[in-house]
């Protein structure tokens, strides 16, 4: 079963899994009713999407599913998480965590591992999660700083321009690059941030304070 806020993503992933021989019970989008939907259908494995693993209560649906249907293996599908996010997912009862930008082969491996009772998560993510559990940070993660480290200076500039509401043409003109190059930069920013749209990228940047950290635009930076 695939459940995600973005219906298009849920349906596309369900279709891809069906083509690989899996029986997908449903592909649904409701965020508030996700847990109830899974509980009602009781699939063997559920891929449960989350847009903000660092938000309080992000994994409450996982805990509810495991409480009502402990036999269901829940694999969280989300953006690049912090170790604390991974730890929170497993603490809620998740069987695994798969990044939104994972290839379908990786998603399928996660499903098979979860089905067999193994931890369905990349070793480096699991190692970071256990490290966080054993040696918790004295201070909360600086999400804005973490996101900035993922982006090149030029990608940061693109993100700032996206947040200012500039379209591809304006971004290209402001940075002195071709529109096709601007589109490529925008797609890379969305992928690195683990979001599906420019609006989501702008909201994430505003919520974490990333725009304040980015400083003034520096056109032409590499």
UniProtKB/TrEMBL annotation:
Keyword Transcription regulation: yes
Pfam families: GerE, Response_reg
SMART domains: HTH_LUXR (SM00421)
Superkingdom of the organism of origin: Bacteria
Entry-linked InterPro entries: CheY-like_superfamily, Sig_transdc_resp-reg_C-effctor, Sig_transdc_resp-reg_receiver, Tscrpt_reg_LuxR_C
Taxonomic lineage of the native organism: Bacteria, Bacillati, Actinomycetota, Actinomycetes, Kitasatosporales
GO biological process, one term: regulation of DNA-templated transcription
Keyword entries, A-Z: DNA-binding, Transcription, Transcription regulation
Domain Response regulatory stretches: 1-115
HTH luxR-type domain sequence ranges: 144-209
Protein name per Swiss-Prot or TrEMBL: Transcriptional regulator
Coiled-coil segments on the chain, per record: none
Gene Ontology molecular function: any one: DNA binding
């Amino acid at each position: 079963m695939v459940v995600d806020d973005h219906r298009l993503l849920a349906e596309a992933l369900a279709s891809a899994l069906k083509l690989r021989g899996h029986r997908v019970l449903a592909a649904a989008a409701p965020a508030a009713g996700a847990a109830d939907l899974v509980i009602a259908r009781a699939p063997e494995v559920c891929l449960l999407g989350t847009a903000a693993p660092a938000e309080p209560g992000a994994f409450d649906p996982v805990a509810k599913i495991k409480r009502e249907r402990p036999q269901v293996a829940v694999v969280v599908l989300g953006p690049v998480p912090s170790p604390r996010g991974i730890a929170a997912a497993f603490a809620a009862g998740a069987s695994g965590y798969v990044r939104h930008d994972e290839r379908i082969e990786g998603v399928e491996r996660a499903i098979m591992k979860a089905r067999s009772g193994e931890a369905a998560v990349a070793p480096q993510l699991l190692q970071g999660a256990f490290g966080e559990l054993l040696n918790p940070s004295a201070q909360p993660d600086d999400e804005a700083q973490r996101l900035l480290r993922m982006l090149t200076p030029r990608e940061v500039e693109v993100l700032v321009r996206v947040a200012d509401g500039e379209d591809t043409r304006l971004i290209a003109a402001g940075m002195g690059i071709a529109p096709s190059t601007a589109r490529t930069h925008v797609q890379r920013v969305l992928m690195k941030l683990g979001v599906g749209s420019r609006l989501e990228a702008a909201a994430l940047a505003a919520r974490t304070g990333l725009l304040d950290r980015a400083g003034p635009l520096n056109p032409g930076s590499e």
